[in-house]
């Protein structure tokens, strides 16, 4: 495959990007145990198109992780019947928390979103899978480590 790009015109600086965009498509990957092909379908649920909002909020895997983690750390959580963006989900969950705990919840929210993203990367690039229970244990461990590192107020979220 050749990539041909015309020379910039005299009016166009060499530092300016050209109007031609290079589109990289993720190759189809075959997951050997079940001989399933993955591509644009979510690695968590294998049902819906893979979008950032689906991966972090709307997939059944993400829903279970959010529910387990937020409940285990004594925060309030509820789900909407409609598909939410990450920002809408954060706003929704944040409003459910008492005012004094919202900053702590914000930290927890970012931690869970980050760990879900890392789990997606592990599945995609390293073909390592965690269950929702394993990811919940990772969340609890990370919360404990963050508290030990100085995020003292985050510790008030723990029930254990």
Short synopsis of the structure:
With 160 residues, the protein is mainly alpha-helical. It has helices spanning 52-58, 60-72, 86-96, 102-126, 132-148; strands spanning 29-31, 36-38.
Written overview of the protein:
With 160 residues, the protein is mainly α. Helices cover 46% and strands 4% of the residues. It has a two-stranded antiparallel sheet with strand order 1-2. It is built from five helices and two strands; from the N terminus they run E-E-H-H-H-H-H. The protein is globular, with a radius of gyration of 21 Å. It has a domain at 61-157.
Features:
160 residues; mainly alpha; two-stranded antiparallel ribbon; 4% strand; globular; disordered N terminus
Topology at a glance:
Layout lengths: L28 E3 L4 E3 L13 H7 L1 H13 L13 H11 L5 H25 L5 H17 L12
Antiparallel strand pairs: 1-2
Helix pairs in contact: 1-2, 2-5, 4-5
Q: Would you identify the regions where 5 or more consecutive residues have pLDDT less than 50?
A: 1-38
Secondary-structure class: mainly alpha
- Strand tally is 2
Silhouette: globular
Order of helices and strands: EEHHHHH
Q: DSSP strand (E) fraction?
A: under 5%
- Treating each run of at least 4 consecutive H or I residues as one helix, how many helices? 5
Tell me the helix content: 40-55%
Mean pLDDT: 74
Tell me the radius of gyration: 21 Å
Task: Report the sheet with the most strands, covering strand number, pairing sense and barrel closure.
Answer: 2 strands, antiparallel
Within the largest sheet, what's the order of strands?
1-2
The end-to-end span amounts to 57 Å
